[in-house]
Amino acid sequence: MLATIGPDARAFAQSGDNARAEEIGSLVEAGRLEEAIREARRAVEQYPRSATLHRMLGAALFKKGMNSEARQEFRRAIELAPNDPQNHFNLALVELSENQNAAAAQELEAVVRLQPANAQARLLLGRAYHNQNRTLPAIEQFQKALAIAPSLPLAHYHLGFAYQSQGNLSAALQEYQLEIKANPDFYEPYAHAGGIQLGQGNLGAAEELFRKGIQLRPNAVQAQYGLARVLLARKDLSAAVGALERVIELKPDHVEAHYALARTYQQLGKKDEAAREFRMVSELHARSAQRRSGIAGSTPQ
Fold first, then answer.
1. Where are the domains of the chain?
2. pTM of the prediction?
């Protein structure tokens, strides 16, 4: 038992579990997960009270998608070393991956109590809060994360999204723009900022944002549909048809795109094409009603 190990033996055991942990970590980094799990299980049998080895086993299991077992190992690591913030952080990652936001928040709250300057933990805590519709505490955590690490990736984006959910569009737009400046290859803020600019009638700014978003993610429906809406607002009907057809190609059940395309065909005098799209809108609405009524297997009349 650990309590019976003298100072020299304890130091030897600690050096042994650290060496095993390094070995396991190298296997995980190399993507040799099955081997990492096998070695970690052996190491845990040899050093059952090593929080580090339980954590390494949990990490390998988590990367392998074995969340239930990973959760057990991280909880055991917490039992052995409750004041190690990494153990709580790792368990929070498992919970977040399964949208267990309340459980994740509990672990991340432990992390920031133990390590107040952990900006990444505050960012994830804000996400866990926001996913529970706890917008004000989420904003507080995002702001604290940025105060610690002003260039933290995704922090401005998530703060902007929280502001947008409050209806504070000017603050949201500012945060999206800051995220774009700091993280220009991240798609999401382009789509959200483009939507705000479009809603405010700033068509040039909206188009620029949507087009940049499409460059980053050509199959992104939100940006493609946003661009189509810009073209419709400009009365560029021929270009709008192409943009709407692209949206429908990416998402055939996009009701709004079908309806907008039907109206655009009407304005272009293409009655048959408009009728076809209106029929599709009706069919999609019927399918949606059937799903809501629990008879999705029925055939529309």
1. 195-301
2. 0.84
